[in-house]
Structure formats: structure tokens, C-alpha cells
């Protein structure tokens, strides 16, 4: 965030607080709740897998920092990393479909990947996620301050 140099520290703290509140409000409007996430998963299953993948639960979790999602086929539970929140819908849909496919095929063999071929944005979503991972490895430059 760029802040005019003429602002006092108190004004800067207030302005940063205002802007963070605006961003949080904007993000909360764009994030699906668990119920909506489950409904979305069911629609995707119907559209791409003929409704065969029927999750028992789908929810956001905050304890997945190295995976985008996980699935426990025996329970029918799917968990998506909170890090996906705010990413393009096609990326979230891909991760949901990936986990839904695990309800039908547990591993990552050829049969599993054939299921995901039905989703036309698979490669694009995988590329997006690979880019996010690569960008996270880059050294971060200090934030610029307008003077």
C-alpha cells in the first residue's frame, strides 16, 4: 500500500485500518460458505461425473498449507485449503473436481486423470496453481513507500 509521506503515523495507522477493513469486507462477500461449497461440488459432480461423486461433506480448512485440497473417500469428506479463497472460480472448481474424482478413484493413476479430462479448464487451473507456488518461492522485495 502506498501512503503519502505527508501523513502522520496516526493518520497512516487509521488509513491502513480503513483499507484493511474494506478488503476484508470485499473478500468475505466473495468467499463461499461451506454449504455453498457443498452445493457447488454437487453441481460439478452432476455436470462432469454424471452425479456419481457424492460427497458427505465439503468444507474450508485452515490447516492445509502444502495442499490445495484433500479427500477421505471412506468418509466422503472433502476439505479445501483456505488459500484457495479469492482465487478464480475455475481454479476452485478444478480443485473441487480433483477431490470429487478421488471419491470415484482413490489414486492418481490414468483412470483418475481421464475423469479430470472432462473439465475443460484443467490445464489452465493447474498452471495457475503452479504459478502461485512458484511466486511464493520468489524473494520478496520490501514494500515501497511513497515519499
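Sequence proposed for the structure above (147 residues):
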Amino acid at each position: 500500500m502506498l501512503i503519502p509521506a505527508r501523513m502522520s503515523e496516526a493518520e497512516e495507522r487509521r488509513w491502513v485500518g480503513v483499507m484493511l477493513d474494506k478488503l476484508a469486507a470485499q473478500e468475505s462477500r466473495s468467499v463461499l460458505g461451506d454449504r455453498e461449497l457443498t452445493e457447488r461440488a454437487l453441481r460439478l459432480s452432476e455436470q462432469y461425473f454424471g452425479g456419481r461423486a457424492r460427497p458427505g461433506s465439503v468444507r474450508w480448512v485452515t490447516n492445509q498449507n502444502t495442499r490445495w485440497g484433500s479427500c477421505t473417500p471412506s468418509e466422503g469428506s472433502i476439505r479445501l485449503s483456505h488459500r484457495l479463497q479469492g482465487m478464480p472460480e475455475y481454479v476452485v472448481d478444478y480443485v473441487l473436481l480433483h477431490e470429487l474424482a478421488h471419491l470415484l478413484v482413490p489414486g492418481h493413476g490414468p483412470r483418475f486423470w481421464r475423469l479430470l479430462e472432462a473439465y475443460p479448464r484443467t490445464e489452465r487451473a493447474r498452471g495457475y496453481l503452479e504459478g502461485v507456488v512458484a511466486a511464493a518461492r520468489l524473494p520478496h522485495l520490501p514494500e515501497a513507500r511513497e515519499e
